[in-house]
Amino acid sequence: YMDIVKLRNSLNVRVGGLLPPNPVCSFAHFGFDEYLMEAIRRSEYEKPTPIQAQAVPAALSGRDVLGIAKTGSGKTAAYLWPAIEGEGPIALIVVPTRELAIQVYQEAKRFCRVYNINVICAYGGGSKYEQSNELQNEGAELVVCTPGRIIDLVKIEATNFLRTTFLVFDEADRMFDMGFEAQVKSISDHVRSDRQCLMFSATFKQKVERLARDALVDPVRIVQGEVG
Ligand code: ADP
Ligand code: MG
C-alpha cells in the first residue's frame, strides 16, 4: 500500500472515487495485447505519462473516469488505448473542434493499424454525405467526432447511439467554452445508459463538474499535476 502512495506521489497524481485501481509504472503492466504493445513500441514512448499511468488501469477495469491534466500530458492515448482494447461495437470520442478531431483520428489510426479497426472522423464542415456513407458502409468501430455533427448523423440514422458502448468527452472545458453544452448533454443522455464513459479536461470548471455528475457513474477522479 505504501508503494502505491509513493508511486502516486512520484506521478503527482491525486485520486478520488470509490476503490480506485492502482497506477502502474510501465507499459508491460497494462496487460495490453501484443498488437497494441507493438504499436506503442513503434511510437518509441519510454513509459506511460502520469495521467496514463493512473487513468488507463482505471478505464481497463471498466470504471468511468474523470481525468484532469494539463495540455501535453498524454491524455489522448489514455483514452484511445482502452477504447482500442474494448469490445465495442462503437467507441465514440467527442472533441470540440475539427482540428482536434483530425489530430485524434490520426493518432487512433497509428495505434489501430495492426488491428484493422475501422476509425472514422466526423466533423462539421466536412461532407455529411461522405461521413454518413463511411459510417454505414464500413462498420465504424472508433468514431472521432464533433458534437453537432454526430447529432446530425444520428438524426439521419447514419449511426446509432445505442451501439456506443464506450464514450469519451475530450477537452470538456473547451467544449463548454465553445458553447456545446446542450449538444454534449444530449449525447450523454442518448448514448446507451450502460456505456463506459471517460471525460478529460485540462482545467477544472463548474460545468465540467456538472457534466461529470450527469454523465459518469462512480467515476475514478484523477487530477495530475498543477491544474487551473
Ligand atoms: P494532451 O491531450 O494531454 O494535451 P496529447 O495526448 O496530445 O496530450 O500528447 C502530447 C504529446 O505527447 C503527443 O505528441 C503524444 O504523442 C506524446 N505522448 C503521449 N504519450 C506519451 C508517452 N507515454 N511517452 C512520450 N510521449 C507521449
Ligand atoms: Mg488532448
From TrEMBL:
<feature type="domain" description="Helicase ATP-binding">
    <location>
        <begin position="56"/>
        <end position="222"/>
    </location>
</feature>
<protein>
    <recommendedName>
        <fullName>RNA helicase</fullName>
    </recommendedName>
</protein>
<feature type="short sequence motif" description="Q motif">
    <location>
        <begin position="25"/>
        <end position="53"/>
    </location>
</feature>
<comment type="similarity">
    <text>Belongs to the DEAD box helicase family.</text>
</comment>
<feature type="domain" description="DEAD-box RNA helicase Q">
    <location>
        <begin position="25"/>
        <end position="53"/>
    </location>
</feature>
